[in-house]
Design goal:
It is a single chain. The protein has 295 residues and is of the alpha+beta class. Helix content is 17%, strand content 37%. The protein folds into two domains: 179 residues, DNA ligase/mRNA capping enzyme (D-amino Acid Aminotransferase, Chain A, domain 1), CATH 3.30.470; 99 residues, OB fold (Dihydrolipoamide Acetyltransferase, E2P), CATH 2.40.50. It is built from five helices and 17 strands. The strands form three sheets. Strands 3, 4, 5, 6, 7 and 8 form a six-stranded mixed beta sheet that branches. The protein is elongated, with a radius of gyration of 23 Å.
């Protein structure tokens, strides 16, 4: 397609990033949505067609070609949608582990969940209140049940919504002020509350750094999983130090990142740790070691 004289393509907009909080807001001026486990994506349509850009503005249209094709069929001349590209299971639950294989082999099994609209038919909507932007978004993508979906929300009742998200085994939730404007970067008018999980991991070693909490390096299913801060009571902590001294190893039992080459006390297999960690992360984040035992 030839470029019309004097016209430029719509540009990528740096995404708004929610602030992480421990508990969700409960007042009625907040809307709550599911936090989808996938890749943040900006879907843009202009005179030259549709394209899908990553959270950093890289063009991933070839990987998401069925979604891009569907975007070109929506009833608008131009738009910028903010959302999440997911690999949904039959019940709609996102499966992050399936993302890469579907992007490579089965892109038609991906879906784009739209949760905001920043531009529509020549109008910049970033200064329009969120609740009005979502109404425009719904009118654009309805019925929004297939490859391009709409992120439903509820008003108020943040604690109850979080309980439902947690019981469903989902990653967490995002809460947004009803009247909030869209501003790039980290903004406190959007907050995310993530669910916690507890699981058992193999202890590979202990890393000590001056001025930082002691970290347990752990693995799961035979693969490095991340680190967890050692927050054990003093008696249990002393027993862990003794066990580490008694079971020292010259190298880790599993392959670990090269950053752990120094200042690590590796241990022989046989110690299992109970770790609390944020659900939905692909390596442990904000994790703590809460207990341990020997096999």
């Amino acid at each position: 397609m030839l470029k019309p004289a004097g016209r430029t393509r719509l540009s990528f907009i740096k995404p708004l990033e929610p602030v992480q909080v421990e508990t969700p807001p409960v007042s009625d001026d907040w809307l709550h949505e599911i936090k989808y486990d996938g890749f943040r994506t900006q879907l843009i349509l202009d005179w030259a067609g549709a394209r899908a850009l990553s959270r950093n503005g890289h063009d991933w249209s070839a990987r998401y070609w069925p979604v891009v094709a569907a975007a070109e069929k929506l009833p608008a001349e131009s738009f910028i949608l903010d959302g999440e590209m997911i690999a949904p299971e039959p019940d709609g639950t996102p499966n992050f582990q399936a993302m890469h294989s579907r992007m490579t082999w089965n892109a038609e099994l991906l879906a784009f969940v739209a949760f905001d609209i920043l531009h529509l038919d020549g109008q910049d909507l970033r200064s329009v209140p969120l609740i009005e932007r979502k109404a425009k978004l719904w009118n654009l993508v309805k019925p929004a049940k297939q490859i391009i979906q709409y992120s439903d929300h509820v008003g108020g009742g943040g604690a109850a919504f979080f309980g439902a998200v947690e019981n469903m085994g989902l990653e967490g939730m995002v809460s947004k002020r009803r009247e909030s404007l869209y501003r790039s970067g980290r903004v406190e008018s959007w907050v995310k509350t993530k669910c916690w999980d507890v699981g058992d991991f193999e202890l590979l070693g202990i890393k000590r750094e001056p001025g930082k909490p002691v970290a347990a390096i752990v693995a799961r299913g035979g693969r490095y999983a991340g680190t967890a801060a050692v927050t054990l009571p003093s008696g249990l902590r002393e027993r862990l130090w003794q066990r580490v001294q008694e079971g020292r190893a010259s190298k880790p039992a599993q392959r670990v990142p090269s950053a752990f080459a120094d200042d690590v006390e590796w241990v022989k297999p046989g110690i299992t740790g109970r770790v609390k960690f944020l659900r939905g992360e692909h390596t442990l984040r904000h994790a703590t070691l809460q207990d341990f035992w020997e096999e």
